[in-house]
Every structure is written in C-alpha cells, then in structure tokens.
Amino acid sequence: MIKAAIIGLGRWGQILVESVQGQSEHIQFTAGVTRTPAKAVDFTKLHGIPLLDDYTQVLDDPAIDAVVLATPHSQHVDQVVAAAAAGKHIFVEKPFTLTETDAKKAVAAADRASMVLALGHNRRFLPAIAEVRRLLADGELGQALHVEANFSGASGFDYKGDQWRASAAETPSGGMAGSGIHMVDAMIGLFGPIERIHALSLRQVLVDEIDDTTSMLFGFENGMSGYLAALSATASLWRLQVFGSKGWAEIRDERRLEVRLIGVESKVVDYPFFDTRRAELEAFAVAARGGPAYPLPVDQAIHGVAVFEAITRSAMSGQTETTG
Hints:
Helices cover 31% and strands 26% of the residues. A hairpin with a 2-residue loop joins strand 10 and strand 11. By secondary structure, it is of the alpha/beta class. The protein contains nine helices and 14 strands. Helix 1 crosses helix 8, helix 4 runs parallel beside helix 5 and helix 5 runs antiparallel to helix 9. It folds into two domains: 121 residues, NAD(P)-binding Rossmann-like Domain (Rossmann fold, 3-Layer(aba) Sandwich); 172 residues, Dihydrodipicolinate Reductase, domain 2. Strands 13-12-11-10-6-9-8-7-14 form a nine-stranded mixed sheet, with helices on one face.
C-alpha cells in the first residue's frame, strides 16, 4: 500500500479521499494540505488525516510516497516538478496544466526522477467506455466516422467571484476545464490525436467572467470528425455517441449504453454503479508500486492539454486552430 498526501481539500479533494480511505488495499491518505484548514478540520479528523502546514512539509516527509493534487490548474506544473524532485509519485487532477509547454515540463520532470505521473480522467475506467472500445476494435461499428459528446451542468451558478474557479484565467472556455476536458480525453483515448479545432465560447447568463456555453468542431488525425458541447448553466447531461459505417453506440449518464446497427434492433445495457474515482487512484497506486502502467499514457495527457489550449485560442480568434 502506498501512503499519499492529498493536496487541496475542497469538494473534489474530499470526494477523492472518500473513494478510497479505509476501503482500499492499495492507497491510504496519511497527510493533507489545504489553503483554508478551518474548512477541512472536521473532514480530516473523520478520516484520520493529519493536516500539515504547507506543501514543503509533505515533500520533506520520507514516509509519504505520493501526492494527489486537487489544486487550482495553474499550480499543477510547479507542484508536479517539486514532487518529482522530492521523489514522490504524482496523481494530478484535470486539466493537467493550462498549456502544452507546462504539460511537457511536468512530464519531463517525472521522467527524470522515474516517478509515476497519472492524470485524473476517471471516465477512462467506465465499463461502458471499455465496451465501446471493444466494439470499435472488433469492427462491429464498422469504420469510425464521427463522434459527438456533451458534458454539461449547472456548476457555473455555484462559482463565486472570490473562488478560483470563477476566474477566466483558471477556467478558460467555460465548462471545458471542469467537464468538457473529460470528453476530449475520451475522444483521444478512443480515436487518437485531434488535429484541428473550431470553437465558439459565449457568456450569456453567468454574472462572473467565465463563459457558460462552449461548442467545438474537431478534425482528427485519422480523418474522422467530432463535435463537443460543454455548458455550465443548464441541467446536467452526459452523452458520448460514436458513429460508424455499420451503426452507432451511445453512452448516456455514464452507465447506459445503447448500440444500434443498421437493420438491427437496438440493444441497451444498463451498467451498475462503478466507482471510477477509486479505480483511478488504485490504478495509480499499483503503477507506483511497479505494477501495470497507468492506463492514460503521458503523451495523450500532453495532447489533451494541446487540444484544450487550441480550443481557447480558437474561441478567442474565431478561427480554426491546430494542435501541431
């Protein structure tokens, strides 16, 4: 079992802790650091996690094997570099970084130190995603032609002016940082690199400076097309649909998969709940102990940031942007 420190104990940091603490044979949180300790005292006491004063204390503690970063996006690169230099394995929440240059810097630091660096795209672990991957690999959907997705919700209404997520610098292109980036990763994992992006990002109803409606068209290296929407001021929706020359497969709300082939009646599968947060943290812990590699290659993590950065450029320029 690896011993980890949780860095950042806001809503998502606490969700990560709750997914494994006292339940996993692979990872245990033994320390924590957060910007506002008073808000996390009760939570850390409940889960037996001592709160340390700062990140340096974590890095200096030889009993801590790894850090889990649930911190503002702009802090990730420096925190990754420092952790790698201190001999800590690193799990970092998405977005990995805000620029491709920083993503490459972080990966290089982990490589030099021979530390495992894992990016928290937990939807890679969904059983429905695994089945779509199989359908594509076995040719049951035919040639992949197009993919479209929507990951939306009402989170923008919760952001307040004094919160870091309410800053356009930390949350460019509206819902992309909080949700849409997951769909970009799913697309890359299923179909490979995205070459061209044309994006439109609008602020229509939110009071703070972040956009609430972002849509994108993608051109993939393999020749297929894609579409993604990420809204942060509407009711929740999670949808990923893959179109092939023999039919399509659609995942809704992460657990319902419908497959419709040409001339064949639809087949629907409802998967039971699967804790993808626990799955990603345990996969990270196993990799850190020398087991199978974490199932999100670092080159794809870097490419995901390149796509994210190109989306923001396109939204600002109104032009099609490339990731090369």
